[in-house]
Amino acid sequence: MTVLQLDDSTGWLGDSLSGGATEGAVLAACDLPADWRSVEERLVDAFHVARRCVTQGAPLVYVVHSEDVRGTRSPLASALATALVGCARAVAYEFEREGVSANVVALPDDVDRSAAARVIGGLLADPVLTGELLDLGSSKLGKVQP
Length: 146
Hints:
Layout: E1 2-5, H1 12-18, E2 24-29, H2 36-56, E3 60-65, H3 66-70, H4 75-95, E4 102-107, H5 113-125, E5 133-135
Parallel strand pairs: 1-2, 2-3, 3-4, 4-5
Helix pairs in contact: 1-5, 2-4
């Protein structure tokens, strides 16, 4: 099972990840949501992707914007990003014994795309980590993290 649900900000990941034979799912939520309905729709997508990963024993990676984890872009984007962090941690906790890993990768605007693809691909290829938030930006240095 390979599922890539990317948004406009992360479409480049499709080319980077589709070449590998890696099983798992990547759902991105880096674009600014227009309204609460779009947040709800993305969370419903996230639930269905997580359920599919759990039933097939596949790794799951949610991709969010770094600033949304800290709540500095918009309230809607922050609500979505932090809900996805909570979902990944719940999946990780509930299904660790079954070998299902779930993580979140937070990308800044100036992300090194090849490095991001390697990190995400690594989480899919070797799901040794689970329940983690990996922020690839440096703007968090010196700040309290959730």
